[in-house]
Amino acid sequence: MTVDAHLLRGVASAAPPVAWIADRLPAGDFRRIMLKPNWVHHEVSPDFPIRALITSAALIDAVIEACVARYPNAETITVGDVPLQSCDFETMMRQSGMDRVIAKWRDRTAPRIVFRDLRRERFRLENGFMVAEPPGDYGDPLGYREVRLDAASFLDPISGQREKFRVSDYDVQRIQSSHRQGHHRYLIAGSVLAADLFINLPKMKTHQKAGLTGALKNLVGCNGEKAFLVHYLKGRHRAGGDEFPSSIAWPILLQVRVREALQKRSRLLFSLLRPVWRAMKKLYGIRTEGTQDNLKKGTFYLAAGAWYGNDTIWRMVYDLNRIIRFAPPEGGDLAATPQRAYLAIVDGVVSGEGNGPLQPLPVDSGVVWTATNPLVADLVMAQLMGFDYRKIPCCARYRDLGDPEWSQVDPAALHLDDHGTPVTGLESLAPLRTYLPSPGWRGHLERTPPAT
Predict the structure, then answer these.
(1) What is the pTM of this model?
(2) What DSSP assignment string belongs to 327-356?
């Protein structure tokens, strides 16, 4: 009997034993290994600590050690991600302890261990204004490859509204030049496509736009430039968009449009209008910080597709998962057969609930699990968090992925190894508890909705 996922409980330290990881690595003579953590952003508030925000440095270290032991002929192990453009990468490495992991492996040559910020460009926030950084020691040394999905993209059925395609803080023209009817392109880091083994290391967290962020959503960081990644359709739901629910408060809509117009254009005007927005927030009781207290009262700031009606982001996520399976090393058109081995190792030692992914409230969940199928990994995550996978598009639409292996999932027939105990069927896996969803999803994805 094939085990679909291996779950380890009671992980009190930041990583499971190296031997446990090594036993679950796929067999093969892999030479180029890619580790893809969740390195979304540095910590900006102690309310949302780094340990709940990004993949544990100790887990990354343990996976490197397991790979070194398991694959003696490996040439390179690359650890890399594409964080948000405003992320201070060096600060994030220091906050998380990754700087010590980097120092530990810096001088190893067989295999060579490479740690990279894979962004093509960086910005920094200065009083809320985005300022471009000069070229530096970042980007993929192997460059980037265009991958063509065209009519096979999951975005194609909604491309009649391409003028509404958006991702916050990125140039609209660059988004729309990559995505139109019958023409859908992504720009994937060369180190990702060069790998013959891809190890996905997502963080167990809630997510504003996708409901949860796990193995499927973590592939957003494989694309070298986020302007290629459509996150939502501009406008209210009643106007054919999914950026906002129809009932969105008008001050939020106004602030979003002003910010959209000025954040990278007029530093002076942006600075002058910031106090106006602060006053409006106070007047209308609009909350933007996802603390426990703020999540329970007032009107929470919902923008950029951060609600359960987002019908766009799952399409982009599915595109990327098809790419990681079938895109050849040189990019271009998808191949007919899988191009690399795959394993997900999910970091749920300290997970994040509430207004994720950037404002996670830490939960000591103490779990780590592995799966060779990202859909299975995310089904397990939803179940453990007390969420109904049928209410989360990235999980519910799994048949649409059309993969001859990955989409052939039957949640009722999954075989799970729950800390040494065989479990059959997703529903037989007991939730850890019901985690607090992101504000735009509350009451819409829980297995047992909260009392009103």
Answers:
(1) 0.94
(2) --TT-EEPPSS--SEEEEEEEEEEEEEEET
